[in-house]
Amino acid sequence: MRPERVYVMAGNAFCISDGQGDIVVDPHDPIGYFAFDTRFLSHWVLKVDGERLNALSRDDMTYFETRFFLVPGAASHYIDADVSLIRHRSIDESFQERIIVLNHSAEPAEFTVRLDVGSDFADTSEIQQPRTRDVSVVVDSERHQLRFRYTRDRFVRQTVVTSTAPVDVDEHGLTYHIRIEPEGEWVTDLHVATHIEGAGGRDLRAGLEEHREHVRRTMREDLREWLDRAPLLVSERPALTAAYRQCLVDLAALRYVPLIKSGTVPVGGLPWGMALYGRDAIITCLQTLAFLPELARSTLYSLSTLQGDRLDDEHDEEPGKIVAELRYGEAAAFGEEPTALYYGAADTTPLFVVLLDEYERWSGDAELIRQLRHPARMALDWIDEYGDLTGDGYLRYLTRNPRKGWVNQGWRNSPDAIAYADGRLPGLPRATSELQGYAYDAKRRGARLARKFWDDPEYADRLEREAAELKRRFNSDFWLPRKEYYALALEPDGTPVDGLSSTIGHLLWSGIVEEERASALAAHLVGPDLFSGWGVRTFAAGQHRYNPVGSHLGAVWPSDNALIVAGLRHYRRDAEAARIASGIFDMACTLGGSVPELIAGYDREVTKYPIQLPAAGRPQAWSSGGLLMLLASLLGLRPSGEDLLVSPVLPSGFGRIELLDIPGRWGHSDAYGRDRGNLRARRPRMQ
C-alpha cells in the first residue's frame, strides 16, 4: 500500500508530508516543502520524549491549511494517552506551523518536545536521486532561529526557521523542555521563511516580492472572493455540486504569480507540475472562460512576455514560439535542464492565438487584442516559417536539442505516444493531426482579429485562404477511408500513421473535420475500443502499444475528454457528447475530491470503479478546468456578439441544473436546463 500523503499548497509553493505531518525524504515522492522548484525543507519530524507520533485524525480545512491530531506511541496507547498534540499547518507567503501540546492528566507534566529539521535544497528535477549540496547551517538561539543556506555562484537559496517560544537550537533542529499544568496546554508557532536570489545570472528578488504580495492577502478572503466571482451551480445531484465547488477551489489553489510579474496564472498541478506550462495554462484558460475569465487575461500577458525572439537550440526557442515550460530551480538556472525557458512544444503557439480570440469573444476586451497584435502575428508567422519543417505546408516538430529536448512536442509527449496500430514508431519530423487542427483554427481566428481589430483586411484574407487550403489538403492526406478516421500523424514523406487515438476528438474541436465525416469519428469515440465507460482512452484498445495504464497509450484524461465533448457538440453529435461527459462526471463524483490528472483505461464493466494511477497528479489545473468545460459544453454555452447562447443537452439522470451569474461581455447571465434538453434561459443581468 502506498503511504498516506497530505498536502497544503498556495500558488507554486506546496508541502507534502506523511499522515502525521512529518517530512522524511522518499525517493518515490516529492516529500517536503517546495517553492519555485526548490525543496526548502527535506526533514521536519516531531517527537515527544523521543517518540514519533501517530495520528488520531486530521482536519483538512482547505487547500492551504490542515490540522493533525496526534498522540505519542503506538496505536495501543491511544485510549489512555495523557498527552496529545495538534499540528496546525498553513501556507501563505511562507510555511507556518502551530504546535499545541495538551496535558490531559490531573497532575502537572513535563515533556521534551523535539523537532528535527533539515534542508537539502534539492531541485524538483532530481527528487529520485538528489545530489549532495554544501549547506551551511547557522544556529541563533537568541532569536530562536535556525538558518540553512545554499550558494552556487549567484544562485542562493535560504531557509529560515523561527520559533515564538524559547527553544534550544542546534544544527539539526529545535528542542523544547516544557511544563504543562493539569488540563493545560503549551503552544509555539513556527515560521519557515524562504529566500531566493539569482537564477542563471538573473536577479529574481523584485519578482519574488510581487509574488509574495499576492499571497500575503488573507487566504480565506481571497478564496471567498474567488468562489463568489464564479457562477453558482444549482443541481439536483449533490455530488455534482460538490465536484463543481472542488474544481473551483483547486483552480484557486493552482494560481501563482511568475517572477515575470504579469498577474496570476495557473500552474500545471501537484506534485510534479507546480510551474508554468504553456499548454496546460492555455487549455485551462479555454476551459474556464465561462467561469473565471480573469485567468485568461494574465496568462496571455505572461505568455506574450515570454514569447521566443531568437534561435536557441538548447531551449528549442524560435522567434514567435510560445513557451512550453518555465522553471526556477538550480538545474534550469545552470543549464543542466533546458527548462529555465523551454520552448519544446509545437501546439502552444497556435493555441495562444486560439485563446486570444476566444477570450475576446467572451470578454469583449478589445484593448488586449490590440495590445497583443504583435505577439499574435509573430505566433501566426511561426506556424509557417518555423513549424513547416519539410515544406509540405503541415505543422511539424523536431527538437533542436538532441541531448535534452522532448521527442514528442504535442500534449502526447511520452516518447512512444505517437505510433502505428502495429506498434511502429514514425520518423521525425512528425506532423501530428491535432497540430493541423490547431493551426487551421488559429488562422481562422487570426483572420477575424485582423479584420475586426487590427485594421488589416488583406492579412485577414490571406489567413482565410491559407486556412481553407489547409483544411482541404488535410482532409485528403490524413483521412483513412477504409478505417473511417484520420491518421494520427504523417511521416516526413507523407505516409499516414494509422494509430487510432482520442486525437480525432481534438480535430472536431478545431473545426477542421469535414461535416460528413463527423458521424464516423463520433462512432469511434464512443465505440468499445476508445470509450472505457468512464471516458475516451488516449489510445484505442486492440493496437500493439495499447496499455490501459499508459499515460498516452490507453489511460483516460479528463482534460482530453473535455475537448472531445466540446468538439462533438460543435458538430451536433449531442448524444455521443452527453454519453462521454456523463462518464467523466461519474468518475469525478465516484472518486470525490480533486479530479485526478488521469485514470486507467480499464473497461468500466470490468473494474466497476475508476482506477487511479500512482503517478497521476491531483489536483491538476486542466483536470479541474476540464469538468467546468464539460459543464459548459452540456449547457451549450456560446458567446455570440453581446449575447450568451444556451443550448443544453444533459445526460439522462442529470435532472435539472442551473448555472447562475455567468460572466461575460453581456454582464452576468443565467441558464438552466433539464436532461432531455428542456431549457429555460433567463434574461442577462447587465452590470
UniProtKB/TrEMBL annotation:
Q: Which Pfam families does the entry link to?
A: GDE_N_bis, MGH1-like_GH
Per UniProt, residues of the Putative glycogen debranching enzyme N-terminal domain are 10-190
Task: Provide the Mannosylglycerate hydrolase MGH1-like glycoside hydrolase domain boundaries.
Answer: 436-587
The UniProt entry's coiled-coil ranges are none
The record's Gene3D superfamilies line, in alphabetical order, gives: 1.50.10.10
Protein name stated in the entry? Glycogen debranching N-terminal domain-containing protein
